[in-house]
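Sanity check

After download, print the first record. It should look like this:
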Amino acid sequence: MVGRQTVVTVVAGAVCLVIGGLVGHYYIKNLSSTDKEKIRVMEELVADKWDSESELNHKIMDSINRDNLRTNLKELSRLPHLAGTERDHQLARMIRDKFMEAGFDTADLVPYDVLLSRPNHTNPNLVTLEDGEGRVVFSSAYKEKLLLEEEDQPDSVHAFNGFTPAGEVRTESGRGLVYANYARVEDFDRLEELNVSVRGCVVIARYGKIFRGNKLVHAEKRGAIGLILFSDPNDVALEGQEKEAVYPNTWWLPGSGIERGSTFLISGDPLTPGWPSTAQAYRLKIEDIDLHKIPCQPIGYDDARVILGKIGGTPAPSDAWKGGLAGVEYNLGPELKNQFSSYILRLSTHNVFQVYRSYNVIGTIRGKIEPDRYIMIGNHRDSWVYGASDPSSGTAQMLETARAFGQLISSVGWRPRRTLVFCSWGAEEYGLIGSTEWVEEHVNKLQERAVMYLNTDTCAAGPIINVPSSPLLWDPLTTIMKLVPGVRDGATLYDEWRADYAAQNRNQTSPEMRTLGSGSDYDAFYFLCGIPCVDLRFRRDKNKYDISRFPAYHSGYDTFYMVDKNIDPGFRIHQGCSRIASLLLKYFADSLILPYSLQHLPKVMQKTLDVFRESGKRDKLMKICGKYSVLEESLENFTDAVTTFVRHLEEERLKNLDPVSIRAINDQMMKIEQVFILPIGLPGRPNVRHAVFAPSQFDYYSTSCFPGITDLLYGMEDLSGRDRLMREDQIKRHVSDLTIMIQRASSYLRDFHVI
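Expected structure tokens:
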């Protein structure tokens, strides 16, 4: 990150040069009003308002009000607001109005007509067990038990998995049901090793570890005819399943809680892949979309206990396959126990696909000096049911952040150097649809003008800050965390973060940043456009509970009561989230030199190549493609280019910087990751274009560096003949692509006049 003192020194020098030149000709006392205006303009052009107006940084942080945050969350989560429903539209209009009340320059509703799916409320999705005489002896619940009076809302959507088809499948009598742990690749591989085939069977698996859509893909590929998903107590009820141990008394999930969620693996409207869903857009037919082919249905762990308890066959291979349901062996099947040899299981889903209108809300505060440079913040608005934590805790803080900036404008006349853009996205839960459509509509403008995007999906799901991001944002985030008071007992958020990290990693005292996987609205900004992004969240404490998600995730129990009483009483977490968002936005909006941490980019890339070497992947790559060593050399050169760029920026080139040079330097840093955007997309994944950082192909939530190489090497040992030769050719081509892009990145950082 560029040295702040150096920047201030240069700014002062530049202003002195301008003033000195004018003084030499006219003397200060004889300056005309025109010349005085020139001096004022020059001072503004080279002013670093982040440093010179530091008192405003404290002012905005102090203005973040916990009562306002609580009020915002209560209204946002008062009623269910599934994407495309009237309540969703009401909240969009409310957010637009609040932006305008805050003093924004613009606030607009942006509509898209997109494909969504919903369950049939008159014909619920069910999992049933029938005895040998055809009598239904068990039927699953399709919504949660009512535990609080205010949760009795008729608009609560029944439990279902988005973008899964309607269908009915059944097992054979006494067999055809397989338990597959978390339905990961390694779980299905283990089943094969144990001679447990899922072909022609219904699979039941635990939520967690990986994205649910990947679970369904894995089950389909192994020949399953249906999938049942459930949240196991070992993941969502670690302190007991009794009434006093779960919601509403604690944050743990009761047995009737059901996680809803989409299974779509591609972001955006399925009908308009790669293009925005505007009125003029060409739309595919539903039958031409690559959607899942087998039915899938989520259930609660009370119902899962009944089903799992009847499975016999092969025992669980280890304790790692066993969950927290007392009295359940977690047998693998596919046979049922002898006493249930006449039973069949029937999975019936009645989901309906339909085009609905969904709105984004886009608000702006116009920048005074560089209005064509965008500092962006966003969160989705829609939820599966009440969505108090996910996503409304993020929207509650975004509204308070908007109010705080508006107060700065009205009270002291502040205006950012660069434009602030606030975004409320629609239909995120179905597959990041609202944000993806908007990015697809404005992709050229965003790649030219966007400085960074801050995503703030789930601000309050626990007390631990979590900020996966582009490496360019790692140092700025650390800087801001050191300014913001802690939300627990620490002096600052950074102190709390460092203490938490040290508790998890005994040999490390400095927290390690992570890059981005997918799963929220930064996806299109980063993986499609190469715009630096951060996903700001507060998550569960993994030192206490090593679980994948907060327990009420996507269920009917993610309510205002849950957050207010069990997750963030007093709303200190919300306040910390809003403070860090506000300061990070202002840091990038008002700094003269954009405060990127460029040096981390080649370091992360090199770290991955080191892992390739240690794991033996480099040896495999060298056998296939001898030019892989050229890629390694290119990365060494890129590392040198970044080191030289940063050093010159801090020590030499700043000495004579003028406003035009400052702008050019900022653009070099701002667009450096765009060099790694592969126009045709990754091999087999045209919708993912970032060739250095992207979601794992086998878990949409996790991240991968050089994902194309990892994807292409996967399963190589199983290929032979023509298939293997084709895969090797793909690897050679992709290594060539990466090498050229890295070379371009080195060239991009050279002095302006050098092509």
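If your output differs, re-run the checksum step. Summary of this record's structure: Residues 3-27 have pLDDT under 50 and may be disordered.
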